[in-house]
């Protein structure tokens, strides 16, 4: 037998664990980060520069590509680390890495012309928004006993 649900009782979303929020934000950041780089190939002259052995103003070398690999590996590793590190280390790691990636993301606009302002403004804005979300989630992460105390006080 089914029991009718009153119209005024809307379903409630269960709280999302902080680890899941962080991993989701890092996953979104990683995809955005990679897709912005891929879309950058469509700018006139970028592929010609790569074929000539240059990326931006740098000669393509194993060292440069290793630096780029480390750069794109950071968000990928943060997805995993956000789900597996102990809370205290997890919180600190997310705060440090997200803080360091904000200026790194903004640097992507270096050398850009006004013609590309919308592209870089949107991509950097979205990246910084995701990083700010990570910082907020990590910064406001409650200790397990704080949540229990708040729930007991509310009862």
Provide mean pLDDT, rounded: 89
* Helix-strand makeup class: mainly alpha
Major sheet: arrangement of strands? 1-2
| Residue runs with pLDDT of under 50 for 5 or more positions | 149-155
Number of strands: 2
Write down the Rg. Answer: 21 Å
Distance between the termini: 32 Å
Q: Say what oligomer this is.
A: single chain
Identify the overall geometry: elongated
Proportion in helices: 55-70%
> What count of structural domains?
1
What percentage of the residues does DSSP assign to strands (E)?
under 5%
Count of individual helical segments: 6
Biggest β-sheet description: 2 strands, antiparallel
Textual characterization of the structure:
The chain crosses the membrane at residues 20-42, 62-81, 93-111, 117-135. Keywords: Membrane, Transmembrane, Transmembrane helix. Pfam families: DUF6326 (PF19851). The protein has one domain (18-141). 68% of the residues lie in helices and 3% in strands. It has helices spanning 18-40, 46-51, 62-84, 87-106, 117-139, 144-154, and strands at 54-55, 58-59. The protein has a two-stranded antiparallel sheet. Helix 1 runs antiparallel to helix 3, helix 3 (62-84) packs antiparallel against helix 4 and helix 4 (87-106) runs antiparallel to helix 5. Residues 149-155 have low confidence and may be disordered.
Quick gist of this model?
With 155 residues, this protein is an all-alpha fold. The protein is built from six helices and two strands, in the order H-H-E-E-H-H-H-H.
């Amino acid at each position: 037998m089914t029991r009718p649900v009153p119209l005024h009782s809307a379903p409630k979303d269960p709280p999302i664990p902080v680890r899941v929020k962080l991993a989701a934000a890092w996953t979104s950041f990683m995809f955005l980060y990679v897709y912005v780089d891929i879309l950058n190939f469509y700018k006139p002259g970028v592929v010609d520069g790569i074929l000539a052995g240059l990326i931006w103003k740098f000669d393509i070398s194993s060292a440069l590509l290793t630096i780029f690999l480390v750069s794109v590996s950071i968000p990928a590793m943060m997805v995993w680390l956000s789900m597996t590190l102990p809370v205290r280390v997890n919180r600190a790691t997310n705060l440090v890495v997200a803080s360091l990636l904000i200026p790194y993301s903004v640097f992507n606009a270096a050398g850009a012309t006004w013609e590309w302002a919308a592209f870089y403004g949107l991509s950097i804005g979205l990246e910084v928004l995701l990083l700010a979300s990570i910082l907020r989630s990590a910064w406001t992460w409650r200790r397990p006993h704080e949540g229990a105390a708040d729930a007991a006080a509310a009862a």
